[in-house]
Amino acid sequence: MEFDLSHGGLVRWLREEDDARLEALFAAADAVRAAHVGNEVHRRGLIEISNHCVRRCAYCGIRSANADVARYRMEPDEIVACARQARDFGYGTVVLQSGEDRAHTTEWVAELVRRVAGESGLAVTLSLGERPLEDYAVWRRAGADRYLLRFETTDPVLFERIHPGYPGREPRLAILKRLRELGYEVGSGVMIGIPGQSWDSLARDLELFRELDLDMIGVGPYIPHPATPLGADGHPDFPAAPDGGQVPNSEAMTYKVLALTRLVRPDANIPSTTALATLNTEQGRELGLQRGANIVMPNLTPPAYRALYEIYPGKACISETAAQCALCLDGRIHAIGRVPGTGPGWRPGHEPGGA
């Protein structure tokens, strides 16, 4: 089957409802995944180090305006202990994620990166939001390997609507470019089905994945949080895209976007996300892995903090310990005929010192 990945072709595939054609799409994405990144499923241990955030993003449960959130910051010793667990579980990477927490100074993060990398021996991914450009350079010199920063949408009107107080999306795209110049592996992505997202804009998002030549791409369903403007009943300030053009935030839609992401960026690292597993706790991760994904992100955050990092409600695996999560995910990976990955899981051909 021919796969038209032009803008018009992407829109048609996003709107496709024929089961036979979709199965062909999923099979093609899985074949491309196998050919370009192999059968290893790399595990990247997630540590949610703080839920403080200065931003007011209209979709996020830890936004600064949500007074009902019990805020926390993990201590460096706690974070390093989680990273050692990741090493013991055989993971190749730890991901240090937080809201945009201004109490985490440039040097505090740099020292944390040095400790985590030095004491665990793992690759270090950061997902700390927008910071001054010099911070990224300092953290890269300290030993950070990857940085994740979603551009969220190519639609400038929608971007400004869901990010009140931001200067627009161009600074975020400039940060992604600077991260590449600094030698990071660069990750970005979008939410699927956020109110106001049209088929046309989602197709443009897929085209931007290709244009930016991303090393990592995260795509997951938008899950509304009731304590946010966007998740409030009716959200009159956040209308759906007009004329039947609203993208649904469904499990089925997520699989289509996963598959198309794999086709437009064949060698990228693409996670089967926790948000997808939240929609389908029984098979969501596995189906994502069979439709283009090659990464999972087991949660290492101590249970005392994990429930407080509520970007969206009902998150999968919220009560599991890190050890339970590791055992469960390894079993799920083997059950679909894949193998847990070893090492950092660099994008093929882009290993440090490689081409």
The CATH top-level class label? Alpha Beta
Q: Give the uncertain stretches in residue-range form.
A: none
Can you count the beta strands? 8
Q: What would you give as the CATH superfamily?
A: Aldolase class I
Number of helical elements: 13
- Write down the overall mean pLDDT: 94
Entry keywords:
12% strand; eight-stranded parallel beta sheet; globular; TIM Barrel; 355 residues; alpha/beta
Care to describe what's here?
The chain is of the alpha/beta class. It has one domain (7-336): Aldolase class I (TIM Barrel, Alpha-Beta Barrel), CATH 3.20.20.70. Strands 1, 2, 3, 4, 5, 6, 7 and 8 form an eight-stranded parallel sheet that branches. It has helices spanning 7-14, 19-37, 76-89, 106-120, 133-142, 156-162, 170-181, 199-212, 251-264, 274-279, 284-289, 303-306, 322-335; strands spanning 40-50, 93-98, 123-127, 146-148, 185-192, 216-221, 295-296, 339-340. The model has no long low-confidence stretch (mean pLDDT 94). Helix 4 (106-120) links the parallel strand 2 and strand 3.
Strand-helix topology:
Layout: H1 7-14, H2 19-37, E1 40-50, H3 76-89, E2 93-98, H4 106-120, E3 123-127, H5 133-142, E4 146-148, H6 156-162, H7 170-181, E5 185-192, H8 199-212, E6 216-221, H9 251-264, H10 274-279, H11 284-289, E7 295-296, H12 303-306, H13 322-335, E8 339-340
Q: Can you summarize this structure?
A:
This protein starts with 6 loop residues before the first helix and ends in a 15-residue tail after the last strand. The protein has one domain (7-336): Aldolase class I (TIM Barrel), CATH 3.20.20.
